[in-house]
């Protein structure tokens, strides 16, 4: 007995003292419970706060095969979930009848393929089906569970989808802003650890370890959803008419290089990325193109900066012979246009003119330096992943000469936009910005992103001169290859481009990349737009036919949206007149139809009331108004109306609107409403408005007059512009030689 007690005491000593810490830790592990606190992913919005990506409630479906088998519900469950979720019955049968290795049914099986992260509408249908089946079969549980969690949701569907990117079904960030800023958006998960009793109830006096979840940062992009929509609508029109392999467009503010829109076709819906995942590819930063004649803008800027471009100097167009190159370099029009000025050569998009300027006068080293300084052959630094660098072949004389007009050069669309923005903004190469600000929801602090100047590439004077030259490429309706981008009332600068595609080791005669790049207004640029179309179905069309009209559509709507007023219009006799638009008849139309008609005409409007039909419009149908004037759509009777925003409205229209509402107006000043304030005077509701003449109206008129002196008169009938197509008459490159007629 003594020996037994000695053994027991020794064992107790070992357990309690020698190994006490180990057993205590094991016990604490059994007592403790831990839960992960999942951080909410940050939202992505446009520059105005419109939501583009956000977390929303989702549901995961799971089944209990053992219970389903015991209650004999297998076929009912399979048929019901098939009808609701659209999952094949074969796939559902695998889940509903899943067994362990020992042959027994499992008690939990997730329906991953088709039942993972479903929305509330489908979840409600499953709940209803579950309840009905329970009543019908007289069972309390039918073996279908719905687990609530978060999923990524893109409320605007395909809008800016390649830019924003998407998360896969496992929550991994795959492309776009979602991937590049994944660390900032994801935040950091937290946890809570506590001690529990045998019934898994938290001990009141137990130890608790808590780390709160840190939600991801909210990102506000530089994108303008309205301009993004204008761009995507223009690309869809190109797709409908020319069925290209792809089309890409970028719109940016040239003064800050904030990206206002970035779009590609084909499109995809990130909410259903698995349907056409290949369309998530962002050509704007990940694809390389030969730019063709849009690249001549850079050569022109270099020539003007170095003082070797005289717009009135004459030269012989058609072809030019370069030492060491067996075949001459030719213009698009093989016989040329005779002896013309260098400015006419720019308008016609003459390759010979730019070989003379770049190859003969600037020389290899200066050309190389300018192309590098404008950002080609290097990443722009835009906040998106997998940006390509591009390259310029500069080894042989033929390659140097061809580069002057954009052949043998590979660039990304974002490089083109950054370079032309530098020409527009006074000569500053800026880093493209896609993010405007980031807000930490925990600290409530916001980090803003300011414009970043990389270098000064040309002088402000050169920038001004190049803008005036490029303006004539668009305004000259007889010679300008960019005439289809002309916007009445606005000064537009631009350049077309048409480049042959390299197929194998030679240039194709039937496959082209066509493009247009430009900016407006020339005297105070607000927007630069680049459109590139890969392989339109008609080999005879060029950038002036395909891309320039889309540019015009985007820029016109964008400038009106920005409130940039036209300066002037010209008639066939070159007489300046005020630009006006005629108000369409929209009374008695459904609100949706009226809105669509006004949007199609790029006219701004405001709804007054919450009705579904337009009862009255102000101004009336047929009235001539300024393109930026707002059209008011009255949709309810007087007693239900509230006072709308009257800023920018004439006194006459303000009086008409307030008389409809039944409120007295007290005006101060003359011109257009600049502010308004509702007050009570002698127990009567009144609206005080301050009016003022249009800001800078006189200055705009003078500027318009000065700016039009150098423009060609608009012809009553458009003359056929020279072909912008780059169809080559020369054989493609062999050895050191490249085809040299492909940049139009």
List the helices and strands and how they pair.
Blueprint: H1 2-18, H2 20-31, E1 32-37, E2 44-45, E3 51-63, H3 65-70, H4 74-85, H5 89-96, E4 109-110, H6 112-115, H7 120-137, E5 144-153, H8 161-164, H9 176-180, H10 182-186, E6 190-195, E7 208-211, E8 218-221, H11 225-242, E9 246-253, E10 258-265, H12 283-286, H13 296-305, E11 314-316, E12 319-320, E13 329-330, E14 339-341, H14 342-348, H15 351-373, E15 391-392, H16 397-403, E16 409-410, H17 413-424, E17 428-430, E18 435-440, E19 445-448, E20 453-456, H18 460-475, E21 493-503, E22 506-520, E23 527-534, H19 543-562, E24 569-570, E25 576-577, E26 581-582, H20 591-600, E27 605-608, E28 616-618, E29 624-625, E30 631-634, H21 651-661, E31 664-669, E32 672-681, E33 684-692, H22 697-707
Parallel strand pairs: 2-8, 27-30, 31-33
Antiparallel strand pairs: 1-6, 2-3, 3-4, 3-5, 6-7, 8-18, 9-10, 9-23, 11-14, 12-13, 15-16, 17-20, 18-19, 21-22, 22-23, 24-25, 26-29, 28-30, 32-33
């Amino acid at each position: 007995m003594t020996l037994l007690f000695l053994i027991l005491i020794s064992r107790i000593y070992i357990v309690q003292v020698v190994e006490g810490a180990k057993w205590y830790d094991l016990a604490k592990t059994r007592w403790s419970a831990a839960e992960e606190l999942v951080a909410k992913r940050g939202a992505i919005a446009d520059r105005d706060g419109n939501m583009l990506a956000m977390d929303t409630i989702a549901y995961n479906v799971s089944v209990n095969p053992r219970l389903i088998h015991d209650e004999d519900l297998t076929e009912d469950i399979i048929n019901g979930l098939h009808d609701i979720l659209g999952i094949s019955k074969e796939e559902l049968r695998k889940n509903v009848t899943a067994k362990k290795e020992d042959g027994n049914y499992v008690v939990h099986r997730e329906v991953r393929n088709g039942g993972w992260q479903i929305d509330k509408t489908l979840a409600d249908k499953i709940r209803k089906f579950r309840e009905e089946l329970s009543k019908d079969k007289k069972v309390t549980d039918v073996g279908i569970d719905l687990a609530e969690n978060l999923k990524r949701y893109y409320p605007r569907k395909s809008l800016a989808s390649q830019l924003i990117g998407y998360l896969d079904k496992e929550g991994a960030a795959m492309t776009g802003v979602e991937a590049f800023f994944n660390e900032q958006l994801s935040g950091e998960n937290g946890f809570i650890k506590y001690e529990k009793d045998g019934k898994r109830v938290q001990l009141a006096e137990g130890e608790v370890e808590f780390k709160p979840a840190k939600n991801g940062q909210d990102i506000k992009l530089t994108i303008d959803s309205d301009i993004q929509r204008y761009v995507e609508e223009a690309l869809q029109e190109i797709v409908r008419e020319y069925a290209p392999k792809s089309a890409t467009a970028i719109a940016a503010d040239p003064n800050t290089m904030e990206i206002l829109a970035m779009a590609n076709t084909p499109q995809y819906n990130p909410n259903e990325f698995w349907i056409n995942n290949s369309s998530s590819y962002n050509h704007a930063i990940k694809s390389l193109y030969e730019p063709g004649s849009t690249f001549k803008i850079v050569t022109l800027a270099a020539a003007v900066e170095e003082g070797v471009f005289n717009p009135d100097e004459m030269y012989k167009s058609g072809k030019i012979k370069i030492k060491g190159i067996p075949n001459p370099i030719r213009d698009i029009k093989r016989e040329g246009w005779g002896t013309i000025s260098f400015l006419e050569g720019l308008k016609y998009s003459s390759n010979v003119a730019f070989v003379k300027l770049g190859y003969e006068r600037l020389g290899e080293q200066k050309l190389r330096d300018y192309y590098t300084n404008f950002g080609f052959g290097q990443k722009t630094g835009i906040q998106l992943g997998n940006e390509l660098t591009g390259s310029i072949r500069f080894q042989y004389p033929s390659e140097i000469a061809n580069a002057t007009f954009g052949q043998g050069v590979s660039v990304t669309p974002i490089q083109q936009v950054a370079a032309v923005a530098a020409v527009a903004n006074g000569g500053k190469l800026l880093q493209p910005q896609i993010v405007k600000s980031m807000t930490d929801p925990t600290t409530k602090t916001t980090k803003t992103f300011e414009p970043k100047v990389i270098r000064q590439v040309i002088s402000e004077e050169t920038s001004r001169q190049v803008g005036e030259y490029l303006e004539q490429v668009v305004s000259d309706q007889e010679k300008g290859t960019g005439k289809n981008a002309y916007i009445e009332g606005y000064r537009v600068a631009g350049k077309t481009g048409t480049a042959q595609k390299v197929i194998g080791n030679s240039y194709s005669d039937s496959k082209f990349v066509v493009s247009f790049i430009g900016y407006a207004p020339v005297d105070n640029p607000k927007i630069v737009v680049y459109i590139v179309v890969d392989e339109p179905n008609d080999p005879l069309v060029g950038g002036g036919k395909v891309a320039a009209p889309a540019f015009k559509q985007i820029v016109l709507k964008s400038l009106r949206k920005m409130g940039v007023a036209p300066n002037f219009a010209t008639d066939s006799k070159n007489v300046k007149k005020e630009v006006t638009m005629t108000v369409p008849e929209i009374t008695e139309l459904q609100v949706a139809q009226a809105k669509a008609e006004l949007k199609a005409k790029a006219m701004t409007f405001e709804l007054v009331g919450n009705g579904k039909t337009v009862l009255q419009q102000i101004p009336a149908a047929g009235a001539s108004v300024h393109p930026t004037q707002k059209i008011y759509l009255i949709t309810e009777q007087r007693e239900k109306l509230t006072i709308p925003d009257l800023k920018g409205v004439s006194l006459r229209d303000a009086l008409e609107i307030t008389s409809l509402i039944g409120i007295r107006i007290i005006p101060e000043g003359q011109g257009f409403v600049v502010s308004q304030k509702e007050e009570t005077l002698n127990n009567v509701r009144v609206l005080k408005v301050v009016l003022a003449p249009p800001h800078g109206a006189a200055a705009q008129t003078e500027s318009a007059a000065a700016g039009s002196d150098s423009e060609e008169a608009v012809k009553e009938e458009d003359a056929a512009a020279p072909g912008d197509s780059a169809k080559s008459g020369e054989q493609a490159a062999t050895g050191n030689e490249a085809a040299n007629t492909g940049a139009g």
